[in-house]
Structure prediction request, 497 residues.
Amino acid sequence: MRPAYEIPHFSTISTAPRDADVELLAVPWFEGMVALPTELDAVAGADLRSAIDRGEFAGRSCDLYATRITAPGWKASRAVVVGGGRRDEMRVETTRRMAAAVGLMARQQRLPRVAWVADADDPQLVQSVAEGFALANFDNGHYKSRDDAPFFLSHVLIAGGDADAIERGRIVGESMNAARLLINEPGNRLTPRELAERGAAIAAVPGVDAEILDEAQLAELQMGLLLGVARGSAEPPRLLALRYEPSDAPPGPMLGLVGKGITFDTGGISIKPSDGMERMKDDMAGGAAVIAALRAIALQKLPVRVIAVVPTTENMPGGKAVKPGDVLHGASGLTVEVNNTDAEGRLVLGDGLWYAQRLGATHLVDVATLTGACVVALGRVTTGLFGAPNGWVDALRSAAERAGERVWPLPLFDEYRESLKSEIADMVNSPGRPAGAITAAMFLKEFVGDLPWAHLDIAGTAWAEEAKAWTPKGATGVMVATLVELARSAGSPWPTR
Ligand code: BES
Ligand code: MN
Ligand code: ZN
Prediction:
């Protein structure tokens, strides 16, 4: 099988661009700039300015303009100018995408070594440049047997880049790629057992312990919600729990990450229409995100205790499947009337959130491709953010801002709780169409007690429906960077409730 990704060798350089031993020099360009940085302007500036005059290059975000370097004494034979739009609108995400666009172009032209030449040296931006190049070194054609092997970048040099920031970016980018590979895997390859094993393997880095619960252990713990969803499938469910408890972490807080791990969602007896159902192999993207984030947190040796919990099963319409109207008992003691078997994510997360608390989590975040309603509300641009108290929701907002990922809060007013009412059980799992993303979050809220908790609905953001200059079609690896930033913020006190 073809490899899905390779991580280039990253380093910082302090030499002049002419001495950079690479095939390609990459230079960011923002609207209003008049010259390229350093001596590069003397060899490529005139060509660029005439391209701008002709209207061939406008410098919009991720626009590329490639030019040859013919001046004697330069090691690189090409330069590419990459647009960044307006500098005052630039965000971490802009530079990540710019670097990724350059990386994809370099791979297409089979140029193995790239140097990024810019005057900004803000560590957060340097990190995002490294992330972007790591992300560019990802190939979707994992199962193509006839095409040539993919060409990967071998070296990325970042001029003036802080070595720690580059290293953080490499780790985050590589972890996102690990998540993307899992998410892209088809359901026949990535069964629940396989997700648990490969998740444990991804997180098998120093300081991390993994535990995989099988169906007998889940029954022992009375996880009737997870087991209920699994009933329709020939594949047994699993629960993956990862723990990272570094000795230098303060004893108080423990971040509990919980990710939805539905390896394929047919909808069950409330079956989905066949059009587009193949995408439901990505219904474990939340699980992949928390596994990848915990790996990156451990590799960065962040001084905070973190656990990741991934309840995983298929959602299938088998002869033993849970039926609309059935009542399930969760490990927390709550009973649920399953009025729609397609609202399975909140069921498995209910038991997953309970287990994270049992392992000692003090601050919870769950990540899930939970509702089509969230895609209606926020589209494919923005991850839905929910939770309480507000201080914890704010901690996630600012982590996402620093990480360069779009999230936006939606409310959890008490009035929404009414729609969860069931005649015969504590609640129903599918309260109907109005405010579907919110009522799904209200359901999860029933399982978190008084702990600070946030819920990230990535139904719209986990998957790129079309290729862009900076990414191929497929899994995005969304929220890995945000969760790592959140863990990095553990030094400043987290809110309690
Ligand atoms: N995995 C889906 C949500 C989803 C839909 C993700 C589209 C990505 C794209 C989830 O399990 C689901 O089916 N949700 C239902 C809930 C409803 C039955 C209350 C939905 O959104 O339709
Ligand atoms: Mn579903
Ligand atoms: Zn689902």
Summary: The chain has two domains: 9-161, 187-491. The mean pLDDT is 96. The pocket of zinc ion (ligand 3) is lined by residues 262, 265, 283, 344-345 (CB under 6 Å). Residues 288 and 381 are 19 Å apart (CA to CA).
